[in-house]
Automatic annotation (TrEMBL):
Protein's name in the database: Efflux transporter periplasmic adaptor subunit
Residues in coiled coil: 100-145
Family: Belongs to the membrane fusion protein (MFP) (TC 8.A.1) family.
Main location: other
Keyword Transport in record: no
Keyword entries, A-Z: Coiled coil
Organism encoding this protein: Arenimonas caeni
CC annotations in GO: cell envelope; membrane
């Protein structure tokens, strides 16, 4: 065999071997990769809630009478002592002994409630005054760096809460005074035939807006029948029902963000109370769940949520824990390794290697990395099942 033929056959063998290698070599797996970066990781709980007014008052008929046509519309503002409903007396005999005794008992009960509300108001005003002094003292110490800034923030929170509680106590006292006046008027009016008496005017005990009216045209009403409901839209809070398993992780004063309320910018709030009793609720899938009411007070400025009304839907996000400036990766990059720990696929050139990692806080789609990765390294997100340690990859 000549030398030229040997070279020709050798070249053919080399070409065939190269073609076989190209055909049998592993095909790079297309992957998506993101860098390991520093950022914020927030562990949170989200639930649906609705707004409600802190203070509301139901105007009821103190006696059986003829109510005149209602002129107020829902949403109309009302002032203190403004006439809300006018009741004309019906021809009727004077109160019998039993009815008189009941009316007298209602008047005495209203007087007792007024005394209690007055005491609560004095206590709330004293607490607000003390909270103001504590805030002034804490601010002074914080400016001189004698106490931590957190102490001043807590004092400010306590002061704001005391002011709101004083406003609610003032509302309750005004309500009790109105109830006493109505009970006394009913007792006096029932002492003789009402057809000879002038019309009774029911006045607003507090300033606010009309939330609901229970009648429009003139008609007879009986004692205790609801007529109007009024409230103060500036005193708004949010009630959120959360799973009982999540409720045990919430604390008073915990920050809250309110989303999907009608504006892209979330409202800020904080947990005011986690109610101690739960209730059963059937989910949309027909599963019975134990839920708990969590009351959130809105801390954003009033001008930011002027158009937010009573019983409006919102989504509440409770911030359980936060880590700022930590190494983080998307949660979709993590998977369980053979030992039950967490691992990622780290990109090294055109290949990947399995890298065990230590994790910290999780939330918001991200996971804190406390060991195993360095800032700037590339990791695969949504790793394919066919991806193996040392496998070839191609970035999309």
């Amino acid at each position: 065999m000549t030398r030229a033929r040997i070279l020709r056959y050798s070249l053919i063998v080399l070409v065939l071997a190269a073609l076989a290698w190209l055909a049998l070599r592993p095909v790079p797996v297309p992957v998506d990769a993101v860098p390991v970066e520093r950022g914020t990781v927030v562990d949170s709980v989200e639930a649906e809630g609705r707004t409600r007014l802190v203070d509301r008052y139901l105007i009821t008929a103190p006696i059986t009478a003829q109510a005149r046509r209602q002129q107020l519309e829902v949403g109309d503002p009302v002032q203190v002592d403004q006439v809300l409903v006018v009741l004309d007396p019906l021809p009727a005999p004077a109160l019998d002994p039993r009815s008189r005794a009941e009316a007298q008992a209602r008047a005495e009960a209203a007087e007792s409630r007024l005394r209690g509300a007055s005491e609560d108001l004095q206590s709330a005003l004293a607490a607000a005054e003390q909270a103001a002094l504590d805030l002034e003292r804490a601010e002074s110490l914080a400016q001189r760096e004698l106490v931590a800034r957190d102490a001043a923030d807590r004092a400010r929170t306590q002061h704001e809460r005391a002011v709101r509680e004083a406003a609610s106590a003032r509302f309750r006292r005004a309500t009790a005074a109105h109830e006493l006046e109505a009970a006394g008027a009913a007792l006096a009016l029932g002492s003789r035939a009402r057809s000879d008496e002038p019309a009774m005017e029911l006045q607003a005990p507090v300033a606010g807006v009309v939330l609901r009216r229970h009648f429009e045209s003139s008609r007879p009403v009986v004692a205790g029948e609801p007529l109007l409901e009024i409230g103060d839209p500036a005193a708004m809070e949010v009630e959120v029902d959360v799973l009982s398993a999540d409720a045990v992780r919430l604390r008073d004063g915990m920050p809250v963000q309110l989303h999907r309320w009608g504006d892209p910018e979330p409202l800020l709030g904080r947990v005011r109370r986690v109610e101690p009793a739960g209730f059963t609720k059937v989910s949309a899938l027909g599963v019975e769940e134990q839920r708990v009411w969590v009351i959130v007070e809105i801390t954003s400025e009033r001008e930011h949520w002027l158009r937010l009304g009573d019983a409006y839907r919102v989504n509440a996000r409770f911030e359980l824990a936060r880590r700022d400036g930590v190494l983080r990766v998307p949660g979709s990059a993590l998977f369980r390794d053979d030992q039950g720990g967490w691992a990622v696929f780290r990109v090294q050139g055109d290949r990947v290697e399995r890298a065990p990692v230590e994790t910290g806080l999780q939330g918001g789609g991200f996971t804190e990395i406390t060991g195993g990765l360095a800032e700037g390294e590339q990791v695969v997100v949504h790793p394919d099942r066919a991806l193996e340690d040392g496998g070839r990859v191609r970035l999309r």
